[in-house]
């Protein structure tokens, strides 16, 4: 059985150089989560390459070269500028993204966006149908392709289909504002397994199905949950995504990263470093975090010269006016806070607006005494988990938004906050900074053990088991650029964490029961 991953974007970035088009691995939560899976098992990834179709010949050659080098075949779905505008910028990011993050006031319900969304999901269905083999497991990811299962089933495709939503799923009172709510639910119920990040998201989905589609038969069986719709049975479950613990934990302990940590400590001596690391997006709550930090400095003068906030913002969608305004607001707040509190030898906030190299990222994680992770809403938030994995000295403290999906796993040993409650966040920061090593270490030790135990392979194992899928033989799962089966030489990295997918399979409802333990 082969693995076919389908997402809005391919896991690469195309760069123009004087010698032609170069392909490098992409960034983002989805790539971070699935890259170790593909390293271990190989497979085929279908998605939009990020470029206009007039460059097709050169881009296809660059993608083929990447496939040959990595053992993971890439198949592009070519989109016109008009399709990209309506499907991605429109329906996906002006409707679904804000709505599913409980920010419905930001939605722009343009009817043509839905038309474009359906048309692009049809285009994806064309490529998936042409590229998959009868026994392949097709795993579709995220909100851009919720309708793809319906489009594939209507074409007669009978492959096992799984869907995983990486962002939150809203409760009925918010979801019902979507004009195409019934079509979205119908499309999701065409998958064999529909996976969510947390039990809360799963329950929100089933509440919407129960209230909007009373003919659907929802059943709990020994802890599992199934939904029968038009004679099709779908398993619905919560599968919290993990990280490649070994990659972060071992990587953070290397000599190169250690030297960077020592250099950071030398530049910021005798103070605790608080790390905020976010993609530029209004759901991440960076302005609220900055205001809470300023309030902490105001209420607790003993923090002066004792604490430095290292706030990193990764550029994203900079051409969108709303994101330009957000960037300007963040920079204005940083300037105001630094102007108000800076003293000779101490600047309260060090602001970085750029992408980070791998070693630099690991060094920031390891150096930080406090991880300051306060999104307004997040499906999971892997930043919190990566921070814990990189705390090799075990002295860090995690401040975490209760509205991040990760809070359902990490709440016992993180300091949970409501990011809208600036006073409570300020108090939490003062508490975190004041904790002794004896208080910090047991909590961080438990967090790191949890990250190691419930890593990305643990997540993969449980999702694939719920689907009845077994990928225990990596050598038969890789594909060369031609689409033929290729030997990947066992694509897993040496000593990778996790056990990989189990060789056994369970009935879907039993698998979901196991996942909820």
Task: Describe it.
The protein is an alpha/beta fold and 517 residues long. It folds into two domains: 3-241 and 455-515, Rossmann fold (3-Layer(aba) Sandwich), CATH 3.40.50.2000; 245-453, Glycogen Phosphorylase B (Rossmann fold), CATH 3.40.50. It has helices at 29-41, 56-70, 81-100, 111-131, 148-154, 172-175, 181-188, 199-212, 245-252, 255-267, 286-299, 321-341, 358-367, 382-389, 407-410, 422-434, 437-453, 456-467, 508-515; strands at 3-9, 12-17, 20-25, 43-48, 72-76, 137-141, 161-164, 193-196, 217-221, 224-229, 232-238, 272-279, 307-314, 349-353, 370-373, 397-401, 415-417, 478-479, 485-486. Strands 5-4-1-6-7-8-11-10-9 form a nine-stranded mixed beta sheet, sandwiched between helices. It has a six-stranded parallel beta sheet with strand order 14-13-12-15-16-17, sandwiched between helices. A two-stranded antiparallel ribbon has the order 2-3. The longest helix is centred in the N-terminal third of the chain and has 21 residues, at 111-131. The two termini are 28 Å apart. The model is unreliable at 473-517 (pLDDT under 50).
């Amino acid at each position: 059985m082969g693995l076919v991953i389908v997402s809005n974007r391919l896991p690469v970035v195309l760069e123009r150089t004087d010698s032609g088009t170069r392909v490098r691995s992409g960034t983002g939560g989805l790539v971070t989560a699935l890259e170790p899976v593909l390293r271990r098992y190989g497979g085929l990834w279908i998605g939009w390459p990020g470029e206009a179709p007039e460059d097709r010949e050169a881009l296809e050659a660059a993608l083929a070269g990447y496939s040959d080098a990595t053992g993971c075949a890439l198949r592009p779905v070519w989109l016109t500028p008009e399709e990209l505008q309506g499907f991605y910028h429109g329906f996906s990011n002006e409707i679904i993204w804000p709505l599913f993050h409980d920010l419905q006031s930001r939605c722009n319900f343009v009817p043509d966006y839905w038309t474009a969304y359906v048309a692009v999901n049809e285009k994806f269905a064309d490529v998936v149908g042409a590229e998959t083999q009868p026994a392949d497991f097709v795993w579709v990811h995220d909100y851009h392709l919720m309708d793809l299962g319906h489009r594939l089933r209507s074409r007669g495709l009978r492959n096992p289909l799984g869907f995983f939503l990486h962002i939150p799923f809203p409760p009925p009172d918010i979801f019902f504002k979507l004009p195409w709510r019934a079509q979205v639910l119908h499309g999701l119920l065409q998958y064999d397994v529909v996976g969510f990040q947390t039990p809360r998201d799963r329950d929100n989905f089933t509440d919407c199905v129960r209230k909007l589609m009373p003919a659907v038969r929802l059943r709990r069986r020994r802890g599992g949950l199934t939904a029968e719709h038009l004679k099709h049975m779908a398993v619905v479950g919560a599968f919290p995504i993990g990280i490649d613990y070994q990659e972060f934990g071992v990587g953070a302990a290397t000599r190169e990263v250690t030297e960077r940590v020592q250099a950071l400590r030398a530049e910021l001596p005798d103070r605790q470093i608080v790390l905020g690391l976010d993609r530029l997006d209004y759901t991440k709550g960076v302005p609220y975090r900055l205001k809470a930090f300023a309030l902490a400095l105001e209420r607790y003068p003993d923090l002066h010269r004792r604490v430095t906030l290292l706030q990193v913002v990764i550029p994203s969608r900079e051409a969108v006016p709303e994101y330009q305004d957000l960037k300007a607001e963040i920079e204005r707040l940083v300037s105001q806070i630094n102007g108000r509190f800076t003293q000779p030898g101490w600047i309260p906030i060090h602001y970085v607006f750029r992408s980070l190299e791998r070693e630099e990222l690991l060094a920031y994680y390891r150096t930080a005494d406090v991880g300051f992770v306060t999104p307004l809403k997040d499906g999971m938030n892997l930043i919190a988990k990566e921070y814990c994995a990189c705390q090799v000295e075990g002295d860090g403290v995690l401040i975490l938004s209760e509205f991040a999906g990760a809070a359902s796993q990490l709440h016992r040993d993180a300091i949970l906050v409501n990011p809208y409650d600036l006073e409570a966040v300020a108090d939490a920061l003062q508490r975190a900074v004041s904790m002794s090593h004896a208080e910090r270490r047991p909590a961080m030790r438990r967090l790191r053990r949890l990250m190691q135990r419930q890593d990305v392979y643990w997540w993969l194992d449980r999702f694939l088991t719920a689907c009845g899928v077994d990928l225990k033989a990596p050598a038969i799962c890789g594909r060369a650029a031609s689409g033929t089966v290729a030997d990947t030489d066992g694509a897993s990295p040496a000593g990778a964490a996790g056990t990989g997918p189990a060789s056994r399979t369970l009935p879907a409802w039993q698998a979901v029961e196991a996942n909820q333990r």
